């Protein structure tokens, strides 16, 4: 087998998903413009954005890797049915996604307090992160499973899909739900 024979199928499968990821990243940047208005109201908010988006990729990239390996090994069927491996992987990711969101709020608040920068109240930052974390966790899990299962059934290698899918869903919905959670916390406070 030549290098081209190895390269072409990977490129053919990954390029469309990468182009969609590019569009998703641009959309997330547009949503960030909307969040900038809230930076004065919630000092420290902008510090949390890159960390929040990065952790979406870390947590749900790991989930995607587990799903992909399970599909390759025949341990996880490519459909929504009760599978102990699938349920455990999803639960672990859900708990990690929400837990790390709360940690981001607390650590940001502490770090900005220690260096003497102006910072919003702890409950505001944690509230924003908790709401955004719960909402993105649900969408990331459902979206990731739907797209990986659909791609796998159509003959795509899930390893080529996981990275761009996680990045795109994380950026788009992470930013949208951050904007929504900011609005909700503003309305409550």
TrEMBL record:
Q: Where are the transmembrane segments?
A: 14-36, 86-115, 121-149, 161-185
Residue stretches making up the SLC41A/MgtE integral membrane domain: 49-180
How this chain sits in the membrane, per its record, is: Multi-pass membrane protein
Pfam families assigned to the protein according to its UniProt record, in alphabetical order: MgtE
Keyword annotations for this protein, in alphabetical order, are: Ion transport, Magnesium, Membrane, Transmembrane, Transmembrane helix, Transport
The primary site where this protein sits is membrane
**What subcellular locations does the record give?**
Membrane
Any one of the GO CC terms: membrane
GO molecular-function terms, A-Z: monoatomic cation transmembrane transporter activity
Which InterPro entries does this chain map to? Answer: SLC41_membr_dom, SLC41_membr_dom_sf, SLC41A1-3
Q: Gene3D superfamilies under this entry? A: SLC41 divalent cation transporters, integral membrane domain
Q: Which PANTHER family match?
A: DIVALENT CATION TRANSPORTER SOLUTE CARRIER FAMILY 41, SLC41A_MGTE INTEGRAL MEMBRANE DOMAIN-CONTAINING PROTEIN
Question: What family is this protein classified in?
Answer: Belongs to the SLC41A transporter family.
Name the UniProt record assigns to this protein: Magnesium transporter
Q: Which organism is it from?
A: Natronoglomus mannanivorans
Question: What taxonomic classification does the UniProt entry list for its organism?
Answer: Archaea, Methanobacteriati, Methanobacteriota, Stenosarchaea group, Halobacteria
